[in-house]
Every structure is written in structure tokens, then in C-alpha cells.
Amino acid sequence: MVCSPRVTFFSTLLNHCLSLESLFSVKIVHAQLIKLSLCNANTFLGNRCLDLYSKFGTIKDAFQAFDDIRHKNVFSWNIYMRVLISLDDLKGARQLFDEMPERDVVSWNSIISGYSSSGFHDSALRLFSQMQTFGVTPSDYTYSIVLSFIQSVHHGMEIHCNMIRNGVDFSSVIIWNSLIDMYCNHGVLDYAFGVFLNMEQIDIISWNTLIAGFSKSGYKELAYKHFNIMRTTNHLPDAFTISSIMTSCSSSNSTIDQDLSTGKQLFSLSIKLGFLSNTILSSAAIDMFSKCKNINDSIRVFEEINNWDSCVCNSMISSLVNNRLEENAMDIFTLSLNKNIRPTEFTLSCLVSCSSLFLPPVVGTQLHSLVVKLGFENDSIVSSSLVEMYTKCGSIDSAKTIFDQMGVKDLISWNTMILGFTYNGKTIKSLKLFDELLKNGPTPDEVTLYGILLACNYGSLINEGLLIFYSMENEYGVTPKDTHLTIIVDLMIKCGRLNEALEIVTTMGSGLNGVMCKSILDVYGVYGELRFIEKVAQRLIEFEPMCVLPYIVLCKAYEVRGKWESVARVKKEMKDRKIKKVVGCSWIGVKRNLFDFKESEVVHHGGEDLYLMLRLMMWDLDDEGYYIF
Length: 629
Hints:
The protein has 37 helices and 2 strands. 71% of the residues lie in helices and 2% in strands.
């Protein structure tokens, strides 16, 4: 097709407008085209104007440009549909798609991508199936879109078979990289490796995807091995490669020394290759040193970084929080705000989660205000952190208000609220919320059932607790673990059903643990059968050698039976092991002052007024009919 000089001239002008990203220039050229009737007559120029308006114009401009094109072709319709999708008008885009007189593979790709980006994955899959029913062969881009949102590995395998059936070339690096990434995300690493081996061409992204898949799935040895193999080829590692390997250098305590050594070697290699300025790699290094219990090296890396961004600050803040350095984390957060670094959802969630440690809880309320100001109150992770923070501070009503206002409640949110009610003594409300979860929420998991069993324990609701415990596997598909067994046994012991509790431990558990031993000693310690109490006390000493409870219980048990030699022996053993009773304390924050109260403390600042107030409160409780211990 030969273009006239005028068409070539205006096309060049429009290209210049694109390079300048100047809406004003586009409108001037567009007005000139309308004046010369070129927009109506020449579809190519009309499409060029429409495309520019779709990039940096308004919906009104795009609509007018689309309307001005007299002879619309498939490109005109595709561009206008892309405008509607970019404006989140998915309904309008789908209506336009259905009305299009002609649809090519780009049309299908656009609407599939629109549904996918809006979270309507099932609708996107249906469109992918309809696309082939209408005789349109998917392109490489189509497959890469579909593979990016596949929820089930079985669907991924079906797409893989579809690709082979449609003769997708193995030399297409992009599509096969997407397939490797899909299999890695679902943990099917043997299939990912099979695709990798069958590729005709391999690029750095292929290696990175495979190595990152091994690393995320916990196969760090395979990640190291393929990283070393990669270095023997003509593909040099980039910052993403090294950061993926560094991520795997953060495992169990038994391999910390080995992981730290490997991490240091990788960090040295990154410096040698000039990647230290890369914030993704620096963030990975900070995280790696922190998880290897080497927070000082994390701080050194952070101090060496000249240009901070949210990624680096998030890594440093989370590392400090995980190492119980919450005040330092707040300092870094304050410095990042001074540098105009906008906090992300991750930043706020991390800080809100630890803000309950600051008393008085002024920091938490300030962070809550910042969450609202930045528009993150609808984020489920941030909202769950706020609920957790308020429950830990005892502001259970504030926590419930935030929970009720959440648009999308995931299981973490439900679990946080259930545990919040439980820890604040609202056991009945915890059970009611559990019933609401069963009706309207997602399927409960082991954390949910832990929280509800704990509520039954705190409320001495033996029948409800046993009903839930025995129906865990059949009703909810959750196999009882030691944590669940410990709670139900503790509940049964407190309710005087020791023999049944011991029978459950014998049939379902591996024996008494520390919590169970403490419950038995608390309830039956002094007046129980002496030989049994001695065995339980000895077992608790094996679990917690420095725990004072078994010694105190044994002393009292021997005293009431007149076994004074045994009392002397226990006290001597306590002295030899340097075991002393821990003095309990509680604290309360009032304005900006923190007051602590130790157990059995008589003298306290303002003590007379304090104990007078306590006596008045006790009288009020007595008048209301409460039993005073």
C-alpha cells in the first residue's frame, strides 16, 4: 500500500506527538486532519489519533476520535476496546466486543486480558475456550496471559496439551518461559524442568524462572546446582538470579552456618558484578542476613545503600521487627517518610502488627490514621493487622468495627478476630463468630479450630469443645495436631475429667507435654495420688528444667503428708539448680507514662489511692453478685 505524501506527513507529525507525549499537540494535528477531512476518509490516520488518545487522552477524546472514523476496521475497534478496559469499564468493553463486526486474535487477547486483570479468571478461561470454538488460533501472547492466572495445575496441563495440539513452536522462548513459571508456581518442578530441557532456545529469563522455582519450593540444593551450571554457559547471572538464590539462604536453624556462608559468597559475587546498587538484590541480601541471625550485617548493607526505595526500607523494617528491634524499625520508618518514600501495604502491615508492643498504644492509633490517609483501609492484610493490633491492646470493640467494615474478609481476617475475642475473654462472641464463618465465610483451617478450641478452654465449655474436637476431621477436613490435643486435654483436666484426658493422650498423642503437665499439677498437684504427681512433676522438669512449678507442687504435696525429708530434698535441688520463683508483673500505659505492678507488691507510687480504688471496685463487684476470689 502506497501512502500519499499528505498521509506520510501527518503520520510523521503524530509520531512526533507520541515521542513528546503531548496531548495538546495531538489535538492540534487532529483538528487539522478533521479540517482536511482526512480523519473521516483515511482510516489509518484516524486509528493513529485514536491510539494516541488511548495512551494519554481522556475517554471523551477517544470516543470522539473513534466516532470520527468513517470506515472503521478491526484495529479501530481493538483500540477503542483497549481504552474501555484501561478505564476498568469491563462491562462496556464486553458489550463492544460482542458488537464488533470482525474480531481477530488481538480482540480476543484484549478481552481475555481485561477479565484476567480484573480477577474474573473463570470468565477469561471461558473466553479462551470460545475463542477456539470460533476458529481463532491462540497466539503466544494468548497462552502467556492464560498461564499467568491458572489456579489449578490440571488446567495448566490442559493448556500445555492445547499448545502442543496447536503446534506451538518450541523455539518460542516467551511462551515456554511462561509455562515453566506456571509449573514452578504450582510446585510441579519435574514438569517445569521437562519443559526447560525441551526448549530449543534458552535465555536468561528461562534460567531465572527455573532457579527461582527451585528456590521458592525449598529445593535450594537444586537451585545452587543449576545456578552453577548456568555460569558454565554463555548466560551470565543478573541481579534477579542472585536475589533468587539468596532467598533460599534462609532456612532452618540446623543449616544457618552453611546458608550464611553461601549467602556471603553470593553477596561478594553481586558486588563483583556491580549489582549492589540494585534495590531488589540489596533487599534480598538484607533479608538473607537477617534470617541467618546476622542482623548487624543487614544493617551494614542498608547503610551502604545510597538510594532508598520502598523495597529496601520494607526489607530493613521487617528484618528489625523479626529480630525484636521494633523501636529501630519505627526509626527507619520515620526516616523513610522524611525521604518522601511512600509506605506500602507491606510496610504498614508489618509496623501495625508490632505496634501493640508500644505502651501506651499511641503508635498504633497514629499508624491507623496513616492507613486511612493513604487509602489502605480496604486492604485485607493491613486491615487484619489493625484487627490484631487492637485485640492485643484490649480494644476489642475497635477491632470488631474494623473487621465489620472490611469489604473482603479472607480466612486470616476471620482467624484474627476469633483469636482476638478469645484472648480478650469474649468466648461466647468467639463461638458466635465461628458460626457466622461457617455460614458466610471460607472453610476453617487448623488455626481457626485452634482459636475456637481455645475459646472453649477459656470458657470451660467442655461439651462444645469435645464436639468440635471430635468432628475436626470429618466436618472440616483438619487432622488434629498436638496444639489441638493439648487444648482439649487441658480443658478436660480443668473440668475434672482426668482419666478421660489421659485416655485421649494415650490413644491420639505421643504422651504428656509441658502444658498438660502444668494443668495436672495445677488442678491435682497437692491432693492427688502422690506417685502419679511425682511422675508428672518429673516429666515437666524434663521439658522445662528451670520451671519452678513442679518443685513448688512437690513441696506442698510432701508437706501435707508430713514427708519433711522429701521437702528438704526438693528445696536443696532447687538451690543446687539455682531455680527461683519468677515474680510476675503487669503493666498499664496511661497517657505517656508506663506503670508496672509486681506480684505481692505493697508499696507503690500513689499506693494508698490505688488500693482504695481497688477496694471500691471489689465492693461494686460484690454488690453485682460476682464471686470474688
